[in-house]
Amino acid sequence: MIKAVTGLMATALEPLALAGGGLLLLCWLLWRRGVRGLPLWLALGLTVSHFWFAAPLGANLLVRAVEGDPDSPRICRPGAGQKIVVALAGGMRGVRGDEPPIGGLKEATFRRTAAAAALAAGDPESLLVVSGGLGGPDTEADLMRSLAVSLGVPEERIVLERGSLTTYESALRVAEWADERGIGRVHLVTSALHMPRAAATFERQGLTVCPHPVDWKQVPVDPGSWFFPQISALARSTAAIREAMALVWYRISGRLT
Fold first, then answer.
1. Are residues 172 and 242 in the same domain?
2. How many other C-beta atoms lie within 10 A of the C-beta of residue 89?
3. Which of 227, 226, 228 is nearest to 11 (CA)?
4. DSSP conformation letters of 6-73
């Protein structure tokens, strides 16, 4: 009980939670002093937006709208031939000091590569395609290969795709590589938030996609903290909005099925 209360108090004292409290106080003061019209509506709109985007409940709803239901069954469409596992890069960051180059991979890329390596390791006949062209001289794909090798995937079973900078370019290059080898089906590994756009983009290039989403952004939250704004919730809302905008852009530009 004491632990729960302490945790709730710590959450309530986070900067975004305090800012939310300030907005509620502002709305109350405007109402108390008889201020109506545009100032009150602006304050109310800002307050509602703040709690919707920065509180865990709203963030989870936004993320779920893009990711889908994590508990829904995912059935890989049947297909013959060798298993091809494709891992999409998730970005890089700067490396400082004596940090090894592989430290330049963002957490999303680590999660995707680890999941893809585990999937490939379960099938000795499979190939692992790592796709990502950011960085240099070691690109995302180079670092992903190093990580996959350290996780037990033989280097000769890893295919580098080092030229793509976007999801669309990855789909084009992987589809071209697959077509040259008569491959029509791939097991696609990427973040759950990215999967709807990635899978539809690869399918647009004629590939049959078996999705393997990882790095889910929907997280279980203590009901007592649902309405307390938090930095982590705001970050998840931001990621969901960005991905939703990218999904819309891909759709109107004809890059999706």
1. no
2. 28
3. 228
4. HHHHHHHTSHHHHHHHHHHHHHHHHHHTT--SHHHHHHHHHHHHHHHHHSHHHHHHHHHHHH--TTS-
Q: Does some domain include residue 74?
A: no
How far is 227 from 62, CA to CA, in rounded Å? 14
Alpha-carbon torsion (196, 197, 200, 202), positive or negative: negative
Q: What is the pLDDT of residue 130?
A: 96
Residue 168, domain extent: 84-215
Q: Which pair of structure tokens corresponds to residue 180?
A: 């040259």
Give residue 100's pLDDT band: very low, low, confident or very high (50, 70, 90).
confident
pLDDT at 5 exceeding the cut of 70: no
Q: How many CA atoms lie within 13 A of 30 on its CB side?
A: 17
